[in-house]
Amino acid sequence: MNGFGGEPLLPPIGSLHVILRIFDVLMEMDLLQRFEAYVAAEKKIEPKDWMPDAYRKTLIRQISQHAHSEIVGMLPEGNWISRAPSLKRKAILMAKVQDEAGHGLYLYSACETLGVQRDDTIEDLHSGKAKYSSIFNYPTLNWADIGAIGWLVDGAAIMNQVPLCRCSYGPYARAMIRICKEESFHQRQGYQIMMTLAQGSADQHRMAQDALDRWWWPSIMMFGPSDAASIHSSQNTRWGIKRFSNDEIRQRFIDSTVPQAELIGLTIPDPDLTWNAERGSYDYGEIDWDEFNRVIAGDGPCNAERIERRVTAHEDGSWVREAALAHAEKERARREEVAA
Ligand code: FAQ
C-alpha cells in the first residue's frame, strides 16, 4: 500500500508490542491528518492510496447504492420499450435503458477498486441489505411517465451527480463525468416527450400533467432526507465526497425545474410553491418524510416487485456469466500453451 500520490509508507520500527501499537496509532493519526490535508487540497485519492476505513466504507455504501439504482432504474422504463408510441421513441428508449446498464457497470467497477467483490455487492441488493434510490419504487402507469422520468428523475440525478464529478475518490469522480454527459441527453429526451404531450391534444396534456402530479414529490425526495436528518452529510462533505447538502441540491432542482414546467404549460403540484424574492429561490411545501422512510425501508408501491425482477434476471443470466468465465479460462489456457 502507498501513502498519497504513490509515496511509500514509513516502515514500522521497534520490536516491543506496546511500542509498535503506539507507533501504529501515531502513524494512523499522521496518515489521517495527511489524508485530510490531501483531500482539502483537492487532490484525488486513488485505489492504492491509504484511506481511513470509514472513508472506504462510506464510498462502498454510496457507490454500490448508486450502481444498484442505475440497474433497478432500468425496470420501470424497460416496461415501456415494447409499448413506446413509435419506432423512433422505441429506439431512443432502448438506448437510454442500455445507458443505465452501462452506468451500473462503471459504478460496480469503481466500487470494486475499493476491495469489494461485485457478487457480494449484488447479493446485498438482492437480500435487501443495500438500498437503491427510492424513486424506482414507483410504478410507470403510462407513456407520459417515461417523459416524467427523463425530465424529473434524470434531471434530479444530474443535479446531484455533477458535483460528484469533483468527488475526492478518483475512480468515482471519473465515472461520473461520462455518466453526467449521458444523463443530460436523457433529461432532454424526457422533457421533449413532456413538451410533445403538453402541447398535444387535451387528453395528452392531461396525461402529462397527471405524470407530473405523480412524479414530482418522489423526485423531490430523491435528494435524500433534510439536512437536519442526514447522517452522512457532515463527514462526507469534510472528505470531499459531497459538495452540497441534500437540501441545497433539492432547492437548485426546484428552482431550475419550475420555469421548465411553466414553459410547457404544466403546473407543479405544490400549492405552497411561491417565489421568494429575498432568497432568490422558490419556497416549497412540506415533504412527506413518512412516505420517504416507508419507501426506503422496503415498503413502497413496487419494492417487492423490483427486487423479484432483479433476482430473476440475475438467475436467468447465470449461463452468460458461466459462458464468459469458461471462455476466459480457455483463452488463458491457450495463452499459456503458446508461451510454453
Ligand atoms: N433513496 O445521510 P444521508 C439515477 C438513504 S441514479 C434511498 O443523506 P448520503 C439514474 C442513504 O443511503 C439515482 N435511500 O445519505 C437513473 C442513507 O442510508 P444508509 C441514485 C436514500 O449518502 C435515472 C440514509 O438515507 N443516485 O437516478 C435516498 O449522505 C433514470 C441517510 O441519508 C445516487 O445514488 C434515496 N433517495 O446522501 C437511472 C447518487 N436518499 O446508506 C435510471 C449518489 C438517502 O446509511 C433511470 N448518492 N437515502 O443505509 C448520493 O449522492 C447520496 O448517497 C444521497 C444520500 C444524496 C442519495
Distance between the termini: 33 Å
Number of helices: 13
Largest sheet: 2 strands, antiparallel
Spatially, the strands of the biggest sheet line up as 1-2
Number of strands: 2
Rg, please? 23 Å
Low-confidence stretches: none
Q: Write out the distinct hetero groups bound to the structure.
A: Phenylacetyl coenzyme A
User: Portion of residues in helices?
Assistant: 55-70%
- Percent strand equals under 5%
Principal-axes geometry comes out as: globular
Mean pLDDT reading: 94
Structural class determined from secondary elements:
mainly alpha
What is the H/E string?
Answer: HHHHHHHHHHEEHHH
What does this structure look like?
The chain is mainly alpha-helical and 340 residues long. Helices cover 65% and strands 2% of the residues. It is built from 13 helices and two strands; from the N terminus they run H-H-H-H-H-H-H-H-H-H-E-E-H-H-H. Helix 4 (87-112) packs antiparallel against helix 7 (170-198) and helix 6 (143-161) packs across helix 10. The protein starts with 16 loop residues before the first helix and ends with a helix. The mean pLDDT is 94. It binds Phenylacetyl coenzyme A (FAQ). Residues 61-62, 65-66, 69-70, 73, 100, 131, 133-134, 149, 153-154, 157, 160-161, 221-225, 230-233, 236, 242, 246, 296 line the site of Phenylacetyl coenzyme A (FAQ). Phenylacetyl coenzyme A is lined by residues 61-62, 65-66, 69-70, 73, 100, 131, 133-134, 149, 153-154, 157, 160-161, 221-225, 230-233, 236, 242, 246, 296.
